[in-house]
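Pilot study result, target chain (136 residues):
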Amino acid sequence: MIMETSSRRPPLEPVLPLINVVFLLLIFFMLAGQLAKSPTVSVDTPLSQSANGPEARDKLMLVLQQDGQWFAEDNDTALTKATLQEYLSERQEGAQVRLQADAGVTMTTLRKRLETLQGLGVEQVRLVTRNDGGGQ
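Predicted structure:
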């Protein structure tokens, strides 16, 4: 008795369309996702148990060190009041600013800096904090 073996192989699952979809999703999220810039000057930001809402990463960020010096998020040179005013006017986003202040900044210094921003035409300041993960 001679058994005939079939030369037919089972059909392979079409994997190419799946790979195409995965790469298209990867490209979409790479283009659509926006990573936040990290400031060039490091500060120890205060902790927060809950966020007040999503952070507006497209708004201008200023960094305030413990000694009260201003820095732009993309520059490690301290800003004076005149350079800060020029920096705000160049970006046309001066009405809203994100402020990453050091946790060691005193309230007196913070109040003076906020008054300076108000005098320069800033209408809204959002304080950037880091999450301590201690939610309820």
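One observation from the pilot: The mean pLDDT is 76. A full batch analysis is planned for the follow-on phase.
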